Amino acid sequence: MDFFSCSWTALRAAVAALPDEDFERPSGCAGWLVRDLVCHLVIDAQDVLITLVTPADGEPTVDAGSYWRLVEPPTGEDPLDALVPRLAAAYGEPRWLRFHLDDVGAAAGRAAALADPSARVGTRGEVLTVADYLSAYVLEWTLHHLDLVAHLPKAPAPPAGTLAAARRALEEIAGAAFPAALSDEDALRIGTGRRTPTDAQASALGALAARLPLVLG
Fold first, then answer.
1. Averaged pLDDT of the chain
2. CA–CA distance from 10 to each of 34, 121, 201 (Å)?
3. Residue 1 pLDDT
């Protein structure tokens, strides 16, 4: 839960510090501007709030690693993916997106801090503990922080601790460790298809390279 708070706080702070013109720059999410990504983060924060107040009975069906499903790369035809840029544009000025993310995002952070880690919640037709749910979102926040700063060299990168935690989570999903020669950032970007490996990196990845990218849904 500490990594959840750390990764979410750092991501929200990075968004809050962006100048208006950066909202119109491309993000690391293919086809999305920074403003589209920030709008997606608002939706993510709402999902966290909804899940934390959706108690579930029965044994957990997934944990932090198996919560994420491997899916096909996006084609741009998913209705929700297409809706996000329209919603982002409807905000008009970046200040309203900042305000909404700060408002809903802070509430999601407070709800996470107050939640019982051992409680069980339901989402996406699955049951898992609050601790596992919040741990799963460390990977989400960290990847989207990398997306946010992909073309913004002056923006702060994710904290080292959350990069390392996200790497461990992705390695669990992959069922294999990434080469030590890859930095945490490179492992996350290459592992999820956000960056193409160099020849040397592909060689270091060995058989794992054929299984990439790991597209999470």
1. 95
2. 16, 25, 29
3. 64
